[in-house]
Amino acid sequence: xxxxxxxxxxxxxxxxxxxxxxxxxxxxxxxxxxxxxxxxxxxxxxxxxxxxxxxxxxxxxxxxxxxxxxxxxxxxxxxxxxxxxxxxxxxxxxxxxxxxxxxxxxxxxxxxxxxxxxxxxxxxxxxxxxxxxxxxxxxxxxxxxxxxxxxxxxxxxxxxxxxxxxxxxxxxxxxxxxxxxxxxxxxxxxxxxxxxxxxxxxxxxxxxxxxxxxxxxxxxxxxxxxxxxxxxxxxxxxxxxxxxxxxxxxxxxxxxxxxxxxxxxxxxxxxxxxxxxxxxxxxxxxxxxxxxxxxxxxxxxxxxxxxxxxxxxxxxxxxxxxxxxxxxxxxxxxxxxxxxxxxxxxxxxxxxxxxxxxxxxxxxxxxxxxxxxxxxxxxxxxxxxxxxxxxxxxxxxxxxxxxxxxxxxxxxxxxxxxxxxxxxxxxxxxxx
Length: 432
What we know:
Blueprint: H1 9-22, H2 37-47, H3 62-68, H4 78-89, H5 102-107, E1 110-111, E2 114-115, H6 122-133, H7 140-152, E3 161-162, E4 173-174, H8 175-190, H9 198-211, H10 227-239, H11 246-256, E5 267-270, E6 275-278, H12 280-290, H13 341-348, H14 357-364, H15 369-378, H16 395-418, H17 425-431
């Protein structure tokens, strides 16, 4: 059967783009279609090298809308995934788009080795697409987990993918989700990712699509061909490098017959009116499909100027510790050297003892460190014109000795020395 497109192929895209423009409201939003029509429209415009800052009605642009369309309380990972695809498509940074880190917001849904709802495969497929498009800005482990989860949940019988994961409620495979899964797998592979069973998973997905093509060339969610499913399948085949295949050409021919003669949009069944009407989402996918494009028009190339906003704790002012000398560990303790200038300094600063430095050094030169410290702490100090100094009058000098010992010998060495001061326990207790 000869299939005739509604418009000449050279004008089909232009007419479809005009339809998208006609659906823009005063906030800049593209307001018809299901599932994020503004994001899909942005990708479609970008695929035709149209700057969305020029898509206005009358003064507010589609770009203005995207910048302000931030989920206040996102309940699903998909709230961020289509936005990331659109942001990358228009050449912007998904980690800092109008001050918002869309990548982090998506990656916060990573749990239990997958993204979002454990029973949803849809959010993993589009999550992998979004993170792949984000390039090096995305977390490699999260991407790898999503990839592994997708492969692990490919149907073992027919090789297709479903919106839900196997074993979950409403699970069944479909051509649209299999096409999306194929797109995600191929894009991940082309970006350099690896996984067990990678090529086999891709081949199974392609075979599933080919085996479910209708005789009219289109694809359907159930059986009868529909524009949404056919558009998705062609996009998946484009991603897999199969845009020139017989299957893709036949699907494209069928899709072109679904363009509305009255408004130029691509039609889909509207469950509210029970009629086939044009909408922005279906039309955006059709623009990509018939032009050999995909949902990932480019991979974001991060530069050194890219700033990734993240929530960071406020710096805490920590007290600056007093400098101490860390003693070098030795197998056995060594005696204090009478020629060590540190020894001389210790006693020079210990004026509370009233002791001559040279005499102390001579007196201590043949004693062990433990004996030297004990001697310094316990020896009765004599003065030419005074009686024996009382223990309590030594307090000031002894404290200075401790300060100097801490400084020059280190806390560890001092602790070792003080352990042997049992015979002078009373003095030690007063000082400590």
